[in-house]
């Protein structure tokens, strides 16, 4: 026999921390009270409706959703799961035992089995715990009598008299099964929760739960491996018996482990006390250092104060002597009363010198001491930062490194990092960042906690540089800070658009992807036909494509990637009143004579070429960026050719009428010029030969997951 009091830990509900009441078996094989399941589901669904707010977590005094469960609510909300009044109650259940989100299926609670075996054990425990407390009759008039038996068919307890009344001899009720007084009433036959009129007679080995024959024929277990209930009963009982026998046979080993764990408990207590004392001593040393510094600073201030007060007091006394009938003036007035010339001259000479000095000091009044104590202001900003970083450091926790290649600055900032050992040894990371400002003497870092290895930030200013650093935490232990990485935000808000597949789009030469974010020019048969024009000195026309959204005012920025194999690509802007001219321009060719970067002629041909163009474009190709030949550009053609950045950006300022071309990776301007912004301005692209352009994707809160799916 098992001592009932020794198994109390197994009979406690993980949600309400009380003895189980009508426990239900979850798909993860853990047990939870029926009432607790309902309350958790109500609180869970309310949290969905309120966006996971803390106020929605107060619906039940018995149940409180843990912080980890609230994090899962936020994660599920972000995943896009939507529910309305027509859908069943939330089928996701946060198991309080394994902390996982369990799918209860469409039937929810109604699809769960009651654990009658566990109920019986709990009832035996209750009876053992309250042996002196009797179960009262459910039908007696007040005061109720002590029950003598319980009917399993009626699910009620009776005294002898009430049992005879409600179960008269010779009726059907007289055949009911009765047992001793109990509060645990279990059905004689276990019915299927999916098909309420069918009894369970099989066991699904895949789902590890009893099922009926309808579940196997056409239900959710049609393709699952099942066995008969008797076979499952025999198999599981044999396995459980063998496992129990094995554990009992290892009782000495278990006791040895318990003894070892007891020693570890004591050792942990001793080590924690030693660590606490060492930490306390370390902080005491800091207190002493601060106290000494404080005393020295206060002494210096007090000494300076006394010296200044003494000087000012002396000056006050000197000026008081200049008053009538007082001090120096009073003494001089008395000297003036001397009538003997010899005596007067003897005294007046020295007195006159003093009077002259007093007169000069009166004309140029200046306090003898400064009243401000600006030299005694203690700057503790750096020390505060150091003390703020004070924590337990561990050599075993790796220092994370910010991955600059995977980090991006666009409409939002995506900061990614990794550990050198490729292991996620930290439980949580802290990302800090601040705006670089030369005017600010002290630096204020903004902090955010991250569970993963990337973070999207949306509160950064345009055209600004930021410093980023990250560290890992495992419990109270933290790693040192990573190397600071400086990144710059775009010069203007990001402008979103797609390639226009209608206005002037040549689907014979250009190919768009379904999302209209990439365009490719294929050097196919049409290009071979166009090459016949080589005989007259012209190559072939460019294939243009524009954005589907125009810009009327303000300052905007967009970025894109040009494939390295691209032969010729032109990028820039075009006004709406010149779009038709763009797609029907007879001079829009590249030739040795009219190519502005060819160097064949002087500025006259360049001027003719620039004036004939309907839009402002720069030339890219063969992994090069070509700065247009303008009067302000370098005369040497080689100095106007730059390596092609991996990501290019264009910044259009309609208010000032200027357009700039940027290395979007470093946010560095490569070329800037004036542009006519009289109408709506559209992003423009031109391709020839084998070339491809991809618009930069916007950074979103779920960018990492989306990027991985691609």
UniProtKB/TrEMBL annotation:
CDD domains per the UniProt record, alphabetical: Bbox2_TRIM36_C-I, FN3, RING-HC_TRIM36_C-I, SPRY_PRY_TRIM36
UniProt keyword terms in alphabetical order: Coiled coil, Cytoplasm, Cytoskeleton, Ligase, Metal-binding, Microtubule, Repeat, Transferase, Ubl conjugation pathway, Zinc, Zinc-finger
Domain called Fibronectin type-III: residue spans: 396-492
Domain COS: 336-393
SUPFAM superfamilies per the UniProt record, alphabetical: B-box zinc-binding domain, Concanavalin A-like lectins/glucanases, Fibronectin type III, RING/U-box
GO terms for biological process, alphabetical: acrosome reaction; spindle organization
Compartments in which it is found: Cytoplasm, Cytoskeleton
Pfam families documented for this protein: ANCHR-like_BBOX (PF22586), COS (PF18568), zf-B_box (PF00643), zf-RING_UBOX (PF13445)
Listed GO CC annotations: acrosomal vesicle; microtubule
Domain B30.2/SPRY: 477-704
Keyword Transmembrane included in the entry's annotation: no
Molecular-function annotations in GO: ligase activity; ubiquitin-protein transferase activity; zinc ion binding
Statement: the UniProt record of this protein carries the keyword Transferase: yes
Domain annotation B box-type: ranges: 187-229
Family: Belongs to the TRIM/RBCC family.
Name of the protein: TRI36 ligase
The species this protein was found in: Promerops cafer
Originating gene: Trim36
């Amino acid at each position: 026999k098992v001592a009932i009091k020794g198994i109390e830990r197994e009979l406690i509900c993980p949600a309400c921390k009380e003895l189980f009441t009508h426990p239900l078996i979850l798909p993860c094989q853990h047990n939870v009270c029926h009432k607790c399941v309902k309350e958790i589901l109500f609180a869970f669904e309310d949290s969905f409706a309120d966006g996971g707010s803390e106020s929605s977590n107060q619906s039940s005094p018995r149940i409180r959703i843990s912080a980890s469960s609230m994090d899962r609510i936020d994660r599920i909300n972000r995943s896009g799961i939507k529910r309305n009044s027509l859908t069943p109650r939330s089928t996701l259940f946060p198991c309080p035992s394994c902390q996982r989100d369990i799918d209860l299926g469409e039937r929810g609670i109604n699809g769960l089995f009651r654990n009658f075996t566990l109920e019986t054990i709990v009832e035996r425990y209750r009876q053992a715990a309250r042996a002196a407390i009797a179960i009262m009759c459910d039908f007696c008039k007040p005061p109720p009598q002590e029950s003598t038996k319980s009917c399993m068919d009626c699910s009620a307890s009776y005294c002898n008299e009430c049992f005879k009344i409600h179960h008269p001899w010779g009726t059907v009720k007289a055949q009911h099964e009765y047992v001793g007084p109990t509060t645990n009433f279990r059905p004689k036959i276990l019915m299927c929760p999916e098909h309420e009129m069918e009894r369970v007679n099989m066991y699904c080995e895949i789902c590890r739960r009893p099922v009926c024959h309808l579940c196997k024929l056409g239900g959710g277990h049609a393709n699952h491996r099942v066995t008969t209930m008797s076979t499952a009963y025999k198999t599981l009982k044999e396995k459980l018996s063998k496992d129990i026998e094995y554990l009992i046979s290892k009782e000495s080993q278990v006791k040895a482990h318990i003894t070892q764990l007891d020693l570890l408990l004591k050792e942990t207590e001793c080590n924690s006390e030693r660590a606490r004392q060492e930490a306390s001593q370390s902080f005491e040393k800091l207190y002493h250092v601060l106290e000494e510094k404080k005393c020295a600073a206060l002494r210096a201030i007090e000494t300076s104060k006394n010296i200044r007060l003494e000087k000012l007091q002396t000056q006050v006394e000197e000026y008081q002597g200049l008053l009538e009938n007082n001090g120096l003036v009073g003494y001089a007035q008395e000297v003036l009363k001397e009538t003997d010339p010899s005596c007067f001259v003897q005294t007046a000479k020295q007195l006159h010198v003093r009077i002259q000095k007093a007169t000069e000091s009166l004309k140029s009044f200046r306090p003898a001491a400064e009243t401000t104590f600006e030299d005694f202001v203690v700057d503790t900003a750096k020390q505060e930062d150091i003390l703020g970083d004070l924590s337990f450091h561990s050599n075993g926790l790796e220092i994370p490194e910010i991955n600059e290649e995977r980090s991006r600055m666009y409409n939002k900032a995506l900061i990614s990092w990794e550990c050198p050992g490729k292991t996620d040894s930290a439980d949580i990371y802290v990302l800090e960042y601040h705006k670089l400002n030369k005017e600010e003497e002290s630096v204020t870092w903004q902090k955010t906690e991250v569970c993963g290895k990337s973070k999207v930030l949306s509160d950064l200013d345009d055209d600004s540089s930021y410093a980023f650093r990250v560290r890992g935490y495992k419990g109270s232990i933290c790693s040192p800070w990573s190397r600071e990485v400086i990144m710059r935000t775009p010069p203007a808000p990001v402008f979103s658009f797609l390639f226009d597949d209608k206005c002037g789009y040549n689907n014979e030469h250009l190919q768009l992807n379904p999302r209209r974010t990439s365009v490719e020019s294929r050097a196919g048969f049409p290009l071979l036909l166009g090459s016949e024009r080589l005989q007259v000195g012209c190559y072939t026309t460019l294939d243009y494509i524009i954005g589907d959204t125009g810009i009327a005012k303000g300052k905007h920025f967009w970025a894109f990637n040009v494939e390295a194999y691209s032969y010729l690509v032109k990028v820039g802007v075009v006004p709406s009143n010149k779009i038709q001219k763009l797609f029907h321009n007879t001079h829009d060719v590249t030739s040795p004579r009219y190519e502005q970067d060819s160097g064949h002629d002087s500025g006259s041909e360049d001027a003719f070429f620039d004036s004939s163009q309907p839009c402002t474009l720069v030339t890219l190709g063969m992994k090069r960026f070509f700065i247009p030949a303008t009067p302000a550009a370098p005369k040497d053609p080689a100095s106007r050719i730059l390596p092609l950045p991996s990501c290019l950006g264009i910044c259009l300022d309609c208010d000032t009428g200027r357009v700039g071309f940027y290395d979007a990776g470093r946010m560095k301007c490569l070329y800037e010029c004036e542009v006519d912004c009289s109408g709506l301005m559209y992003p423009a692209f031109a391709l020839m030969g084998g070339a491809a352009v991809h618009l930069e994707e916007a950074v979103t809160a779920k960018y990492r997951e989306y990027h991985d799916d691609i």
